[in-house]
Amino acid sequence: MSERQRGGDRAPAEKQDVCVIGSGVAGALVAYALSDRGHDVVMLEAGKRFDPANRLQRMERAIRPEYHLPEVWDMGGERDRFTSSGDLYYALNRTRVKAVGGTTLHWLGITPRFHEKDFEMQSRYGLASDWPIGYEDLRPYYAEAETELGVSGGTDNPFAPPRETDFPMDAFPASYSDSLFAEACEALGITMHSVPQARNSEPYDDRSQCVGYSTCIPVCPSGAKYSGDVHVRKAQSNGARVISQAPVQYLEHDSAGERVEAAVYATPDGERHRQEARQFVLACGAVEIPRLLLLSRSSQYPEGLANTSGVVGKYFMDHLVVRVGAELDEPTNQEPIGYQTRETHQFYDHDDSPPGSVKLVFENVNPPSLAESALRGGDTGTPGDLSDVVAGDTWGDELVDTVRDRMPNRRVGMFGNPETLPRAENSVTLDYEKTDSHGNPVPDVSFTIGGYERRTIEFIRDVQRDILNEMDASNIVDSPLRTASHKMGTTRMGTDPSESVVDSRLRTHDLRNLSIASSSVFVTGGAMNPTLTIAALSLKAADAIHRDL
Amino acid sequence: MSRREVIAALLAGGATGTAVSALPSGLVETETAERQGDLTGANLEQLVAIAEVVFPSAIDVTAEDVSEYATRVPDDQRSAFHRTLTQLNRRVFGSHGRLLAEMSVQQRGAALRSMGIARVGSSPSGSLAERVRYYLINQLVYSLFTTPQGSELIGVENPVGYPGGYESYQRPPTDE
Known about the structure:
The complex is a heterodimer. Chain A is an alpha/beta fold. Helices cover 25% and strands 16% of the residues of chain A. In chain A, the strands form four sheets. In chain A, strands 4, 10, 11, 12, 13, 16 and 17 form a seven-stranded antiparallel β-sheet that branches. Chain B contains eight helices and no strands. Chains A and B meet through helix 3, helix 9 and helix 11 of A and helix 7 of B.
């Protein structure tokens, strides 16, 4: 690989058809799809390129207690400063990766399609807004995305939206712990089914079958789980160029304010460069995209680039995780695997609302990592804490006895993802009181849930209790509410330029050569994991850009 | 074959070390190892001595396993790894007049605890005790308990961090 291909040469590329900003799954697919059709593509990526050969060392970071989760992919520090101002603290750096491949280096890999209702919330329920496109518009792109990412899935889901082809790979078999839920669910009339996921259940696309490292979040050492760097490499094979460690500072537009002329990016040597291109694609996620548009304000766009509507950064959404755990009076014998194999969409489609849609997932409750417990000397807390001063950590046989006592092998768990609605006050804005390593205001994420979400949470907790009671489970404990790291909605799609940022072909209303490929364009977020929809939209955007070039 | 016999056999097979009990030669060997990025015989015996303290008694500590574990130290950390081994060697010898490998397992545990190693956190850039915890003890513990050899002691066939396939998660319990 040449110095230019490795990203060491960070000078701008000349005469580019397309400049893609961000190299996660969205940017990677756009770059791949356009370079595959012969267009000259350059990608600007704020983070570095991690060598796939070092994945085992990244995994060791994930397991050893000396490292915090963001450090697995070198997140944190001045570059990644942020603030959180909503009712729910938003731990942004725990859930994103700035690197070639983006946050898909860290994701779990679950890839359901949205259901038809997710695009029609206003028409069906009088809630939020409809998307300007429907399920049928995305349906062929969903199929293409499943092929590109490599999705393992089954046709056993009676609640799934219509599909035209089988999944590229068979679904993963049910776990033993799934069978523990099955009898209770059957008694309650709840249908369990397989989980579609971008993880190889057999060798696929020159990548390994899953071998069960069980560290999917935050790192898959085998490469069985899809990550965006797969298509970055494919794009590079087509001639695309990647400039890593090149965070874009702002976008420059022409005098008419109709076209973007250049992306101005910084490099580690302190230089700044202008990357020009005929078309620009923002693909750096639902936090950094609105931030970049707001940082690119000009005399013609005083509220931020492409922000005539005033909604850039507004309607931020995430999903919630409503988890419950319990114990059974029998061994559950759950070997670690790192992902779920059965769920139900039974509570997703409904005639009335609220409560909103819910996806219910049956966990393979991994025993606590033995290695992690052992590395903590048998502690469950922080190594070197005050009690250690007196007692000290355990080793040898004492350690094994301690850990065995803490692993009763009787635990089960499940979690629901309740639907959240877009709210204008949930937002990504600029915090001018705090700056990053380049002196730019950091993103402030504000996220608060309302009555709709709380009612849906109550509903799913009732369902969870019903199932656990049917199983005669004991010690039922609700986990604290948390967000799922499914950031969406800050540059929403729509037909009305006064209420949305991009049109149905993902092009900004304001600038003729600026498109957005991201969950930031989602109008509503449903309760499904967003990545397959991001991938489908990215392929759709690439089609539109190809037609323009 | 005993542990010492295994080590002796390894040394006879071409390892770079010579004496295993004399501190000065051990230090010389470590400096060589820093250049070569390899374990010396003295290094290996010291690591085995630590492993016998921190590993459960059900684990048969072999020089081959420990040597293999040590090879997982990333290249950019090898110098610090060897330096920590050397400094621990010196500290123990200075305090006790013997190397760890010359003590009983109980004496070794007590010697390590007397340095505070059971009470400190683990850090690659901290005090000697923290670095011993990071480079030596935690490297050994990580390597053991991310394999079935260690995890089966608590009934887990496919521990976190081990590429043990995904068949095991489908199987019902085989005991209890």
